[in-house]
Write a structure and sequence with these properties.
Blueprint lengths: L2 H36 L5 H21 L7 H31 L4 H30 L7 H18 L5 H10 L3 H31 L5 H30 L1
Length: 246
């Protein structure tokens, strides 16, 4: 490889790294800013509308810019399963998040908030079982482990994305915190979430560099994977803030 080819390769790597960061930053800015504005008008109707918009946006991006390289039939099945489980997760979040926002100090809020974790666990189990069954139904089972991991990982991303539904709740809880102990605890929780998101973002940059298909559409999906999976970190942070303050 000549020096010119090496330089061109380095330029492409630098460009893809910048691209993944740009896509992720854009997604995070939209989610955080909109959730922050929403926390000013935390009525049930507004929260529900925001959750619907987040579901349409995140699931739509992931299912359209599907980041996995599979056959047309396999990809269609994976997208369908991931989309259905993702919608179920958002429906459960739409049922629980407004209840927490309306009466955070009540026992109903606690039950609603923790119940979403049960839904998440059930959906992940369903993903693994359905993914295994669909792979066993293939006539040609080449690259079985890879296809199975794609199906499950894509579904996990779509289900985890529903965790972003609780971001306005976390912001509202953080704003209501009183006392140095609560404030320090919430700051630490937020810092942990930031570390998790940054770590996954770095991993996505590596995935993008290793992707040699040259397809910008699938690479957008790769960039969005950490954002989608980061939803579960947001949900866990909401749980931590809730039990810290209440």
């Amino acid at each position: 490889m000549s020096g010119k080819d090496v330089q061109e390769s380095a330029d492409r790597v630098s460009g893809t790294a910048k691209g993944v960061v740009a896509v992720q930053l854009a997604a995070y800015v939209v989610l955080v800013v909109s959730a922050g504005l929403l926390s000013l008008w935390s009525s049930t109707a507004v929260v529900l509308i925001w959750i619907v918009l987040v579901a349409v946006g995140l699931l739509g991006v992931m299912l359209y810019w599907w980041p996995f390289d599979d056959t047309a039939t396999t990809s269609l099945v994976e997208r369908a399963v991931s989309g259905v489980t993702g919608i179920c997760a958002f429906v459960a979040a739409a049922y629980t998040a407004p209840r927490v926002a309306d009466m955070p100090e009540g026992s109903t809020a606690k039950t609603s908030l923790t119940s979403w974790a049960i839904v998440f666990g059930i959906l992940i189990t369903v993903l693994v079982v359905v993914g295994f069954i669909t792979q066993m139904m293939r006539r040609v089972r080449s690259h079985l482990i890879t296809s199975l991991s794609h199906a499950v990982f894509g579904g996990i991303a779509c289900v985890s994305a529903a965790g972003w539904s609780f971001l306005p709740v976390m912001i509202a809880i953080a704003k209501s915190a009183q006392g140095l102990k609560h404030i320090v605890g919430i700051v630490l929780v937020i810092l942990v979430v930031l570390v998790i998101l940054l770590s996954m973002g770095a991993a996505a940059t590596s995935w993008w560099r290793e992707d040699n298909r040259g397809d910008s559409r699938t690479r957008v999906g790769i960039a969005m994977l950490p954002v989608m999976i980061g939803g579960i970190a947001v949900y866990m942070a909401t749980l931590a803030c809730y039990f810290l303050v209440f």
